[in-house]
Amino acid sequence: MILKSLLVTGGAGFIGSNFIRLFLDSHKEIDLINLDKLTYAGNLESLRDVESNLHYHFYRGDISDASLVGRLFHEWHFDAVVNFAAESHVDRSILGPQVFVDTNVRGTMTLLEAAREFGVDRFLQISTDEVYGSLGPSGKFKETTPISPNSPYSASKASADLLAKAWDKTFGLPTLITRCSNNYGPYQFPEKFIPLMIVNAMQDKVVPIYGDGMNVRDWIFVEDHCRAIETVLFNGKVGEVYNIGGSNEVHNIDMAKMILARLGKPESLLKYVTDRPGHDRRYAMDSSKIEVELGWKPCRSFEEGMAETMKWYLQNEKWWGRIISGEYQNYYRQQYGKER
Fold first, then answer.
1. What is the enclosing helix (H) or strand (E) of 209?
2. Looking at the domain assignment, is residue 185 inside a domain?
3. Are 9 and 84 in contact (CB under 8 A)?
4. What are the tens digits of pLDDT across the range 256-314?
5. 205-229: per-residue pLDDT in tens?
6. Which helix (H) or strand (E) holds 250?
7. Quick one: what percent of the chain has pLDDT higher than 70?
């Protein structure tokens, strides 16, 4: 695939912004267009260091807006699309599922249709391990594991995956899907588990733990995930699904206690709260397919990744402090009141 122009959707989010930074550093002559609606979790401050790059272009807009999406495809003649854009917080999907269907399902279909119309060479759908549901105490999710989502969020992501596969089989659009385990690292929105633990502990606030705290997650450093996405984009086999994991399974309570210990904070900050409805017990990913077929593997150990992550949050209180205060949202309303 000859790649001259790439559309990245949701690039102002956590994983998207890390991917953009990595991609622009590795591919100096490719135009990268970032389309992001700048909802509450979209943060252009995460991309300040690439704003001056002549090959980086930002547009504010909704992936469900067929008119806007069509104009961008017509203007830039994208060779490929990487779709990060999604509502992604499980708790929010339980409180208000409609926006998850609007963005994650209808928005993905809008992108797929535009990609089909304009003959895009590759469409990479970024999914999640949550589409598989919950694991028992043993085993790992494989690409052949049946999808069995348990929350409105994971159901909307599973729906988007099925649409991507249908557009491949029915219309011949070259699609690929990646499903990754839980990410952590710099620039993650403070409502997510690890940054929430860090930020609350730094402020001596309560560190909430759902249920008994024994839910297990497989953690991967965000840059390792982004390198996997890059690998699949260029070398993955069209029509395939690739699981991506860090092989770092940790109980939620153990993660919280580790963060408190590293920050020198007492475990009395821990507070067990009512469990989330439909809370999946355990996730674990079998990444052997991408490792064997495409030669990818994680570079950061869990110890290294966590040390880097905690250092970043300690040194960037201004970044997360402004998010907590709502200052960014007011700024975006003033600067980007209308979509381009």
1. strand 207-210
2. yes
3. yes
4. 999 999 999 999 999 999 998 889 999 999 999 999 999 999 999 999 999 999 999 99
5. 999 999 999 999 999 999 999 999 9
6. strand 249-251
7. 96
Tell me which DSSP letter residue 46 carries. Answer: G
Q: Which amino acid is at 147?
A: I
Q: What is the CATH number of the domain that holds 187?
A: 3.40.50.720
The amino acid at residue 56 is Y
Is 191 a domain residue? yes
Please state the domain count of the chain.
Answer: 1
Backbone phi, then psi, for 16, in 5-degree steps? -60, -45
Tokens representing 250 are 């940790």
Q: Please name the residues in contact with 340: beta carbons below 8 A apart, sequence gap of 6 or more.
A: 59, 60, 61, 68
pLDDT given at position 339: 41
Q: Which residues pair with 5 in a beta bridge?
A: 31
- The helix/strand/coil state of 108 is helix
Report the half-sphere exposure of 2 (CA within 13 A, side-chain side). 1
Rounded Cα distance between 202 and 196, Å, is: 10
pLDDT at 340: 34
Residues carrying an active site annotation: 129-130, 153
C-alpha 264, offset from chain centre: 30
Could you tell me the CA-to-CA distances from 334 to 197, 319, 322, 340 in Å, in that order? 31, 19, 16, 14
pTM: 0.94
Q: Assess if residue 340 is contained within a domain.
A: no
Q: Is 293 contained in some domain?
A: yes
Q: Which residues of 195-221 are buried (b: 16+ CB within 10 A; e: fewer)?
A: bbbbbbbbeeeebbbbeebebbbbbbb
Q: Is the pLDDT of residue 144 over 50?
A: yes
pLDDT at residue 333 tops 60: no
Between CA 240 and CA 285 the distance in angstroms is: 16
Concatenating the DSSP letter of every residue in 267-302 gives: GGGEEEEPPPTT---B--B--HHHHHHH-----S-H
Domain that holds residue 198: 5-335
Residue indicated by tokens 């926006």: 99
